[in-house]
Specification:
The protein has 95 residues and is mostly helical. The chain is built from three helices and no strands.
């Protein structure tokens, strides 16, 4: 089960690190559209704030991606370096 979690965290983390810029642009476009449709909630951002929001989301997504990659290392490292379990203690039972 740890292999599945470790591989999943690594895949998602690496995807976030690599695709952070594209995802942040898409997220920024979505939130801008939402703000334009509902200006009473929050006004649309200025072009300067759009660029700043994109940079903030890019950094945030990359940080989350790195955290997930580190989490995958925590899950996978013990599985890689540990020795296989021995079953000899089950066969030498005294009855």
């Amino acid at each position: 089960m740890n292999w599945i979690f470790g591989a999943g965290y690594a895949t998602i983390g690496l995807t976030l690190v690599v695709r952070a810029a594209a995802l942040s642009v898409r997220y920024n476009a979505w939130t801008t559209g939402l703000r334009e449709r509902h200006p009473n909630i929050n006004p649309p951002p200025t072009p300067e704030w759009r660029a700043r929001n994109t940079k903030i989301m890019t950094v945030l997504l990359r940080v989350v991606g790195v955290v997930l990659v580190l989490l995958s290392i925590i899950y996978l490292l013990p599985l890689i370096v540990s020795e296989p379990h021995s079953v000899s203690h089950l066969t030498n039972r005294v009855s």
